[in-house]
Specification:
The chain is built from 13 helices and 5 strands. Bound molecules: adenosine monophosphate and tryptophan.
């Protein structure tokens, strides 16, 4: 089976360290080995009722973040989801193979819908079906994401299986989640039990990819810790000290070490000192990316040209697969 990497990020602003370490950074290496398709999932962003002008700007911002992080638009396909109508059409077809019970289990829906279930939007509910369509439209085989997307990936596999069984053909490959690195789940700088997210009301909860060195220093200085020094090797501490565990994980990811290596080096030392080195590391990694993002964003026409080219290439992959799917289903061609 042909191998193809597919992943995406919502253009909902505030791209943060978790998006970088949990997702984008892990995409770069695939470009040399496989065909890669990286999407800006603007239709998914509609579940958050975005302001139109902000949505337009955020699509460019995610595009700039991909390129500044090392995704090469000549090799990888970089495009906006809404530019290829196969996503929405296939999502409908797949929804006709997705039992309600499967969607009822999705923890992200439960978190985002909150208590007032009656007023939650159906788009938020069927979000994972559209995500399955994103991947399957390209016969995606490898999907590098952060850990929070694992359940959605399992659902995508189940939906692909249900479709294949119904039409008695191995039409969609079952996509594999690829979750790796020391920071598959970066937590909030203010609360080590909550994941770092674009929508947290506190700006101090996240490092944003375009933060200046001063802002990174300030946010890390203010990052929550406990009064104890760094843990000793072999010590169990993650559960009782989630903030300490989070900063150690971030340090490990930024310095390309394992958590154990970081703990061995820093055992018994103070967090104030650790945070200073962490700041230097974060600035060294994020600084150049943020600067490059700003440079790219200063030329929106060039970004739009990348997205035009990506849209054409995305359609060239997805259209023939969709044509074949329609024939299998018994829908008229064209
Ligand atoms: P989103 O911000 O929900 O559009 O997520 C885009 C990508 O970033 C997905 O692959 C997520 O799994 C990943 N991601 C989001 N937040 C985090 C986090 N706090 N830690 C690690 N990965 C994350
Ligand atoms: N749901 C993903 C997130 O919030 C974004 C996404 C949409 C995605 N479609 C995708 C990720 C397809 C990987 C593959 O992070």
């Amino acid at each position: 089976m042909h191998q193809r990497v597919f992943s995406g990020i919502q253009p909902t602003g505030n791209l943060h360290l978790g998006n970088y370490l949990g997702a984008i950074r892990n995409w770069v290496g695939f470009q040399d080995r496989m065909e890669t398709v990286f999407c800006i999932v603007d239709l998914h962003a509609l579940t958050q009722a975005p302001d139109p002008a902000e949505l337009r700007q955020n699509i460019r911002e995610v595009t700039a973040a991909y390129i500044a992080s090392g995704i090469d638009p000549k090799r990888a396909v970089i495009f906006a989801q809404s530019r290829c109508s196969v996503h929405a059409e296939l999502a409908w077809v797949l929804s006709c193979h997705t039992p309600l019970g499967w969607l009822n289990r999705m923890t992200q829906f439960k978190e985002k819908a909150g208590k007032d279930r009656e007023n939650a939007l159906t788009g938020l509910y069927t979000y994972p079906v559209l995500m399955a369509a994103d991947i399957l439209a390209y016969h995606g085989t490898h999907v590098p994401v952060g850990e929070d997307q694992k359940q959605h990936l399992e659902l995508a596999r189940d939906i692909a299986g249900a479709f294949n069984r119904f039409y008695q053909r191995d039409f969609f490959p079952l996509p594999e989640p690829v979750i790796f690195g020391a920071a598959t789940r970066v937590m909030s700088l203010r609360d080590g039990t909550k994941k770092m997210s674009k929508s947290d009301p506190s700006d101090y909860s996240r490092l944003v990819m375009t933060d200046s060195a001063d802002t990174v220093a300030l946010k890390l200085r203010k990052a929550k810790t406990d009064p104890l020094p760094l843990p000793e090797p072999g010590q169990e501490f993650e559960k009782e000290r989630p903030e300490a565990a989070n900063l150690i994980g971030i340090y490990a990811a930024l310095s390309d070490q394992s958590r154990d290596e970081v703990i061995t080096t820093w055992a018994g030392r103070q967090f104030s000192e650790f945070k200073k080195e962490l700041t230097d590391l974060a600035v060294a990694v994020l600084g150049p990316i943020g600067v490059e993002m700003q440079r790219l964003l200063a030329d929106p026409a060039a970004i739009d040209a990348v997205l035009d080219d990506g849209a054409a290439r995305a359609n060239a992959i997805a259209r023939p697969i969709w044509t074949e799917a329609k024939a299998l289903i018994g829908l008229p061609p064209g």
